[in-house]
Design a protein that fits this description.
The complex is a heterodimer. By secondary structure, chain A is α/β, with parallel strands linked by helices. Chain A has a domain of 152 residues: 3-Layer(aba) Sandwich (Rossmann fold). Helices cover 32% and strands 26% of the residues of chain A. Chain A has six helices and ten strands; from the N terminus they run βββαββαβαααβαβββ. In chain A, the strands form two sheets. In chain A, strands 6-7-8-3-9-10 form a six-stranded mixed sheet, sandwiched between helices. The two termini of chain A are 20 Å apart. The mean pLDDT of chain A is 90. By secondary structure, chain B is mainly alpha-helical. Chain B folds into two domains: 154 residues; 143 residues. Helix content of chain B is 74%, strand content 0%. In chain B, helix 4 packs antiparallel against helix 5 and helix 10 runs antiparallel to helix 11. The radius of gyration of chain B is 22 Å and the shape is flat. Classes of the chains: A alpha/beta, B mainly alpha. The interface between A and B is medium-sized, with 15 and 11 residues.
């Protein structure tokens, strides 16, 4: 269970991203956060991932106050619990697909065989086996997207956060991504998608849609 | 005032220390006043960020202070070349009333800063940062001591007059005077060595049985007894001169800078021993600290013991 209690987030120059917001997300739920750019959706994801701290209020994940713990503990929490899919994928262009996907495993010091096993599993799951040695800068948008999802999944996180995941994709690739989301949901992952893409608004497997506007929850 | 480049470098670093330490001091006061770990207010989140800044400043100050202490000793040695009568840093330390106090204050501050670093490390290992308020409270007197040290350092260097003739170490650490130091240096060798080795054996035993308070107390004693026995007995074998009782000359090139090694090893050994008396470590960390302390104290004991033994094997006589 993820809870945001009375969260406000004010960035520099007094930019109010969230204004006294309270939210909760149940385990295994797929929730779409919708709203225009600058409404505060991405800030909600960043707070859950522990990438930023609130100005006031608290974020709890499984009763753990992640907004209160020191930064190096937040990194450990993120490593174990969070898979983050960024709008621009944030892949390292000079590395190939396999190397990008393996990156989250580096700090874990796992055995080579275990890393390989996990890599093969996600390459297969997201249908990019044949691209494993290709530099990511040579991939199409959809392939980059799938690489980013594979990287977010390799740690088997309980929570998947996706920030405008289809902003750079055409409709066909966006529908492919939605299919992947459905698969992830069937694995009982908690998924929160921040988007203003209308494709997400009437999906039958989405549990809830929350509208955010001007840092407040509208519905 | 003597303004050689080394003293200027120390002054510049002192000014930087004062600037950054004052920032850490102000942050510490704010944290002590308003810290409440459970609060989710703007003030508390802001204090959490400030606590990182404060910790970072204090840590880096220590990381610079530690080698700077060696540089300070090196500077004292260098000044001795231009001070009439001085043969090593001892003559400089004895040239005015501030330097001895400064030297001891510097040593105390290094131990206190090192303690602060260990406390900070323990604090950062736990999610609820149980020592956070305590470590910033401890920094308050530490800051005042640091300011006192900087003032004393300025006073010490500005009071050195290269026209004054000063005593050399042979006169300062003479056993013929009626001072407490002379009396301490004149203690019978057997009693001094007895105290030294018994102290070390007791250290080993208290470590085996994990009596942490006893171990810390014995380490405090070990600092004093080690320094006394080094100056009164072991040093004479380093210099191969029975009348030479100087804690500074061994820092010079002629003696392969062995003093830096001995004092360094003694610091690491005794610091790790002292700190177990002040911080409640978990069993694993306690064992590690005890082992490190014993290892470095053992290296110290072994090296100083080798000097008279090698001398005896080479010459067939004791000094």
């Amino acid at each position: 269970m993820i809870k945001l209690n009375n969260i406000s987030k004010i960035y520099e120059k007094n930019v109010v991203a969230l204004d006294n917001v309270s939210l909760w997300f149940k385990e295994g739920e797929l929730v779409v956060l919708k709203g225009v750019s600058g409404s505060g959706k991405s800030t909600i994801l960043s707070l859950i991932a522990g990438l930023v701290k609130p100005t006031t209020g608290e974020v709890l994940v499984d009763e753990k106050k992640i907004s209160k713990i020191p930064d190096h503990f937040v990194s450990q929490y993120r490593q174990k619990n969070i898979g983050f899919i960024f709008q621009k994928y944030n892949l390292i262009s000079s590395l190939n697909v396999s190397e990008n996907i393996l990156l989250p495993l580096v700090p874990l010091n796992l055995k080579r065989s275990e890393c390989k096993r996990r890599l093969e599993s996600v390459l297969k799951q997201f249908s990019i086996e044949d691209k494993r040695d290709t530099l990511v800068k040579n991939l199409s948008g959809g392939e980059q997207q799938r690489t980013a999802i594979a990287r977010a999944s390799i740690n088997s996180p309980k929570i998947i956060l996706a920030d405008e995941p289809t902003a750079n994709l055409d409709e066909k690739l966006s529908l492919e991504f939605i299919k992947i989301l459905k698969d992830l949901k069937s694995q009982n992952k908690t998924i929160i998608v921040a988007t203003h893409d209308p494709l997400f608004f009437n999906l039958d497997f989405v549990d809830r849609t929350i509208e955010v506007n001007n840092g407040k929850i509208i519905s | 005032m003597t303004l050689i480049p080394e003293i200027l470098a120390i002054y510049i670093l002192d000014a930087l220390f004062l600037f950054f330490a004052t920032i850490a001091f102000i942050l510490s006061l704010q944290i002590i006043k308003d810290w409440n770990f459970n609060a989710t207010t703007k003030l508390q989140y802001s204090l959490e960020k400030k606590s990182y800044l404060g910790s970072t400043i204090i840590k880096y100050m220590f990381y610079v202070k530690l080698p700077l202490f060696l540089f300070f000793i090196f500077t004292l040695d260098k000044i001795s070349f231009i001070l009439p009568g001085a043969m090593c840093g001892a003559g400089v330390v004895n040239s005015n009333e501030y330097a001895t106090v400064l030297l001891f204050l510097k040593l105390i501050n290094i131990y206190l800063f090192a303690y602060w670093i260990v406390l900070d490390t323990q604090d950062m290992k736990q999610e609820n940062q149980p020592y956070l308020k305590k470590k910033f409270m401890i920094f308050i007197p530490l800051y005042l001591l640091l300011v006192f040290e900087i003032a004393l350092e300025y006073k010490t260097f500005s009071s050195i007059n290269v026209k004054d003739v000063v005593d050399c170490c042979g006169a300062i650490f003479s056993t013929n005077d009626n001072t407490y130091l002379s009396k301490a240096l004149s203690l019978p060798t057997w009693s001094l060595l007895g105290m030294f080795y018994i102290n070390f054996i007791l250290l080993v035993l208290s470590a085996v049985f994990k009596y942490r308070y006893i171990f810390a107390t014995l380490n405090l004693l070990f600092i004093l007894i080690s320094l006394l026995s080094l100056v009164a007995f072991f040093g004479t074998y380093i210099y191969e001169l029975p009348t030479h009782h100087c804690p500074f000359c061994m820092l010079q090139h002629e003696y392969n800078y062995i003093g830096y090694f001995l004092y360094g090893v003694l610091f690491i050994g005794t610091f790790n021993g002292l700190v177990v008396g002040f911080i409640r470590f978990n069993a694993r960390e306690l064992s590690k600290r005890l082992r490190v302390s014993l290892l470095f104290n053992f290296i110290y004991v072994a090296v100083v013991t080798l000097y008279p033994l090698i001398y005896y094997l080479r010459n067939g006589v004791w000094l």
